[in-house]
Design goal:
about 30% helix, globular, seven-stranded mixed sheet, single chain, 15 helices, FAD/NAD(P)-binding domain
């Protein structure tokens, strides 16, 4: 293992890999250290009996030529390595309330036309909603790939207004309000807290176009890693950071749990900020700063059922994402009630190849707080005990029974089932308590719940889903913000423009 670098990045999630790609391409000697055997963070996959399952990156948007993520993929040299299948234009997302189904269609006008079929009296409200989310997205210069001369990337008004307040300003129809916020599992929103910009940027992103990644999201991680290594970058797996070692002025090196040390001029942490702070024992990080970071609320975690279907199944491939709700109150579902689990779920088929008309695998994802598995918090993977396995089996059965009600015949087509809990998510992604999206942004404390890429240590930067926003687009933009501290925003924007 080499020990001297210009930049060492802790964590090989999307944020770390994008930073590694950009900085190594621009001539820096870069190393990434990853605690797991597999790189990728939420891009990781796993295989069971020949079937590959995604763990975090399930579908992406704005990938038509000329759209924002397409431009970023071109800049990051991903287009030739990542295969995509377009989700159903007439309903890439399907919402189910009390047996009634509502569709999110691709394209702004098509979205309005399709949803207006369910709400003919509210067409003006739906149009108002679409116009507003487009306005919010267009007010964010980096989402439009415009140069910026400020450290603020989101308009203040959209940070200080909650999603539910925004939706209520668009329509007074309570059912339509719930339909318009029904994909909130994509950001684990909380009534009265989650800022409008989170919802608006995500929906603007997917309404333009929506795709599944063919063959697994690890293709993104593999492509970025390969490109980075072609520029001379290094990636070390099974290399967990034990401590960011500091002198009186800055970080001098990182110490790994295996005893090795890596020295660098600059360090970037793609680890959750609260976990990062636990690995720094220095007066350079003031107690008040640590306390602020550690006091931040995290988004809820999840319980997932991974389904492998029989090889001879005739179960039709579902080219849409399916959101189920027990009742039309989307905000109630993250107020977890063990006795009523599950109140909602997200069901998705995975795309093994572009042309198979039948389902090969799927996932069911439901909210679950870490408190539900806290009794096993100090156990390790595959050694959590029979009571833990019984707990998971019970939760999986409840989800599968509900799914069968919506899609009769599904259970008969299942070959095998696998599960993950908040513990699994914690151990593979190093997020606090298995949080799905890291730190919860709160419109009531807008500045306190925003985490800067800069820290109190001059040569330590942060990246990942806690900087800017989560999701593939939010993390890529957050990585650009982080890299701009070393390269300048003008340089990166010029390079993106030259690629497109």
């Amino acid at each position: 293992m080499n020990s001297n670098f210009d930049i060492v990045i802790a964590g090989s999630g999307l944020g770390g890999l994008v930073c590694g790609y950009i900085l190594s391409k621009n001539g820096f000697k870069v190393a990434i250290v990853e605690k797991n055997r597999q790189i990728g963070g939420c891009l990781q996959t796993f295989s069971r009996r020949g079937t590959k399952f995604d763990t975090g990156m399930h579908y992406i948007g704005s990938m038509e030529e000329g759209q924002v993520l397409y431009k970023f993929f071109k800049y990051l040299h991903l287009l030739q390595d990542v295969r995509l299948k377009r989700l159903d234009n007439d309903g890439y997302d399907i919402i189910s309330f009390n047996g009634e189904r509502y569709k999110y269609a691709s394209g702004f006008e098509h979205f309005i036309d399709t949803l207006s079929q369910n709400f003919p009296q509210n067409r003006a409200d739906i149009t108002k909603y679409i116009n507003k989310i487009r306005e919010i997205a267009n007010a964010s210069p980096l989402y439009k790939l415009q140069r910026v001369n400020t450290n603020s990337y989101i308009e203040a008004d959209y940070i200080k207004t909650s999603v539910d307040e925004f939706i209520e300003s668009c329509t007074r129809n309570p059912l339509l309000q719930n339909v318009l916020t029904a994909n909130q599992p994509l950001y684990a929103g909380i009534r009265g807290k989650t800022p409008t910009y989170i919802h608006a940027l995500i929906n603007n992103f997917y309404i333009q176009s929506a795709f599944r990644i063919v063959g697994g999201s690890d293709s993104i991680a593999s492509s970025l890693a390969s490109s980075m290594q072609s520029f001379g970058g290094q990636i070390y797996t099974q290399a967990e950071v034990e401590e960011f070692v500091c002198n009186e002025e800055r970080i001098t090196n990182i110490r790994l749990t295996n005893g090795n040390e890596l020295h660098a001029k600059t360090f970037i942490s793609n680890i959750h900020p609260q976990v990062t702070m636990e690995k720094i024992h220095s007066k350079l990080i003031r107690k008040v700063y640590k306390e602020r970071i550690n006091s931040l609320e995290n988004t809820i975690s999840n319980f997932t059922v991974f389904i492998k279907f029989k090889e001879d199944t005739t179960l039709k491939y579902l080219n849409s994402n399916f959101y189920y709700y027990e009742k039309p109150d989307v905000w109630a579902c993250n107020n977890y009630d063990e006795k009523r689990f599950p109140q909602s779920y997200l069901y998705m088929h995975q795309c093994e190849n572009e042309h198979n008309p039948f389902a090969t695998s799927a996932q069911i994802i439901a909210y679950m707080p870490f408190s539900q598995v806290n009794k096993w918090a100090n156990t390790i993977l595959n050694h959590r005990g029979l009571d833990y396995e019984a707990f998971k089996q019970e939760k999986a059965s409840l989800l599968l029974d509900l799914l069968e009600n919506e899609f009769p015949g599904t259970k008969a087509a299942i070959d095998s089932v696998y599960t993950s809990s908040p513990l699994t998510y914690r151990d593979y992604t190093a997020t606090k308590e298995g949080s799905m999206y890291g730190i919860l942004r709160d419109k009531n404390f807008p500045m306190q719940s925003l985490v800067s890429q800069r820290t109190k240590i001059p040569n330590l930067l942060l990246t990942g889903q806690n900087i800017n926003s989560h999701g593939i687009l939010g993390v890529i933009i957050g990585s650009i913000i982080t890299c701009s501290e070393l390269l300048g925003m003008e340089k990166i924007m010029n390079d993106i423009a030259l690629c497109n």
